Amino acid sequence: MTRHRPPVRGHRRTGARAVATLLAAIVAAMWIAGTGPVGAAPFPEPAEFVNVAIDSVSPSTVTTSSPSTVTVTGTLSNVGDRPVRDLVMRLQRGDAVQSSTGLRSSLTRDTAQYEVTTPFRDVASELDPGQRRSFSLTVPLSAPAEPQSGGGTAGLGVDTPGVYPLLVNLNGTPDYGEAARLDDSRTLLSVLGLPPDRGRATTAAGAMAAGSTGAPGVGTDGSVAPTVSTPTQFTLLWPLAAPGQLAPGVPGGGDSDVRLVSDDLATSLKSGGRLDGLLTTLDDATSTADAPLTRSTCIAVDPDLLVTVQAMTTGYVVSRDPTDPRSATREGTGSAAARAWLERLRTMASRLCVVALPFGQVDIDTLAAAADPALTRTGLTSPAEIVDTILGVTSLRNLVVPTSGALDATAARLLTANRLDRALVASSSIRTATPSGTGQYRAADVGVATYDPSVTTALAAMGAAPSTPAITPTDQRFDLESESQDSRRVAATSALTYSAIAPTTGSAAARIGAPVDTPVVGRSEVVVPPAVWSASADDARAVLDTATLLLDTGLAAPRPLGTVAADLTDTSTTAELQTLPDTTVGLTTLDADTTGMITRATSMIFQIEASMVARNDVAMSPRAYVAPLVEDLIRAMRSAPVDDAADRRSMVATARARVAAVDRAVDRMRDSVSILDPGGKYTLASERSPLLLVVRNDLPLSIRVRLDTSAPPDLDVGDIGVIEIPPKGTRQIQLPTEARSSSSMTVTIALVTSSGVAMGSPIELSVHSNAYGKALFIITICAGVLLVLLAGRRLWHRFRGQPDPADFDRPEPDERERLMADSRYLHGGHAGAGADTLEHPFPRIRSAGDSDRPHDPERPGGRDD
């Protein structure tokens, strides 16, 4: 599985043979001819000249009916810049794995610890740069009686069942260099039983003739059968999950297209894709309802995947900018594949156990730190309902499968507070002084069933996109790309068999050929691959074939996940939750700042939801409208594999980008409800004239709002309380006012939901009032009183025949005024006079210097003045 090689004693061509000779003399190396390896190099070290890739190991699992030899085939590739000559190879074997951690750590050992070696064999005389060549090595499984003359043994020397690390060692001579070990490749060999062997049969017969009982488990033909008296209780989870694909920041409802961040999910669902392969292989292997594998297997499905696939079935688009829900799009290509895949899953779920994973593979520790009931409901308590609704089944309830494989005390309290009192965790995440034979414990009021994290790590290494789970310790981590996919597949299936060939009684181990051990998982083997499992169809088929083999041979007995969950109720063995040492579990939890961003966004979303109104004429509910945004925040808390600080920075950046998209969506929701600004000046006709406003709502749901006003002291604006604005509509509002002065004033009006969220942007109205307030009122009253008094006085004097004192200061009338007062024409009028006979309505009065003025015959005395 890993690269582990010494430095190559060779240097680049200098163009002069003398230089090459000098370098060869300085960099001396020892040629191995079966005497041992050339020195060791720190692990890992990439191939500099020739790369070794294992293509197959046959048999990958040895049984009593297997051939007596092991054949390893593979490919040699010259990845250097010079020819390599005299290529020789051999197989080496390490001691049988003695604990589950050795399933991974044995693959990182120095080559010297692979002590059983076979002789070197020539595989190529020369390999040029870029050239590839296949190889095949076949060796006996069991060791011969005597070592070979050339060094090593003719076979691998395997005499007892177990899981053995296997190494393919390549040596050669690079051009202008010395002989050296160039590369190696590693995997595991599972030996459930040994085929017939003449040497073992002779030894056993001799022992029995001497009165001994012979070797345990050895038959008369020299075969060694596995112990099946205490079969492991086998449970297999089959995960169906994918990273979140729905574009963030898109609320529910409406007639907008379903928007995905990429079309990767379509590729995975189509024939030959990852999810198609996982579904097809499981469907084929569990077609018989009462088969042991069918009873042992439970589909662990992410509800986020089901929500996305169901949305794809009616058509969707792919965003060209995943962070912008308004960016340009292209048509998705996976609708037909989504419909077919979902229908097949429904059919298969009807006959298999189904359990819901946390929504979006949310990290439960981050969820506990957020401490938001709405997020908890979406991430942990709602998934089972989503799975049941979409698949039409009744899934296993109240069993939590943390994506990281671990729980801390805070997360455990979160589970119990939400009546989730059962969980499935890695055995390394608990600490106990009394290991349980069933692998079940009571920790922090939560019943936990344990699984072997080393098996999970081996399964995660499968496929074209292998990963290392966060629960994997540092000494079990290495560059997975350094080994071929076939090599990693053999190592994974071998790890799967480990518990079955390490029989125990209760908590005491009685492993064949191995010292006593007390595994925390006991005799319960719950196999939990990573949630997003990159296994190909061939990988999945190999796992299912191995599980079937274990069940059919009696090394394992089916134990449904429902039984595991039910037994947790009565578990009494106590344990403590612990932080996994030397792992990256801590890196999967988001930092406090990012978690705070998520909780603030959640609070804003649900405050807006609280002000929305469900109506009979609108099919969508407020909860359905905001649910996609809350799910986006759950996806931001995804527990993804993190190897180092760089991975964590990338994870945090991805989470923050998704939260930022949700924040922008919330801002758009707030801008969708606003007051239409009338602009200009607003004149009040009277001191109590109302302000007329129009409020707009572009949301697909009714919403309750109120007006928050700010006005000067001389203008009182009334409170109209909470009003409801219809969806996709407007509403006119009369805002009562009372002005106490005549002036221009500025009134600020904001829109706030009934739950206190500011919507839209405040507007400022310039209001002019014609009211003069109290001063004008008092002046008017005083003037009216004065007028009444004066008129009353005049009337009083007139009734008494007395002149009014107000007339005493009037001047005496002149002659002209007397004439006008005495004029009969002015006082009597000439009603019958025609307009053509009268030039003036009354005679002109001649004044001094008016000699040309005509004589008025009507004037008394007939004289002119």
Automatic annotation (TrEMBL):
The keyword Transmembrane helix applies. It comes from the Bacteria. Keywords: Membrane, Transmembrane, Transmembrane helix. Residues 807-825, 837-865 have a biased composition (Basic and acidic residues). Residues 801-865 are annotated as: Disordered. The chain crosses the membrane at residues 771-792. InterPro entries: DUF6049 (IPR046112). The keyword Heme does not apply. This is DUF6049 family protein.
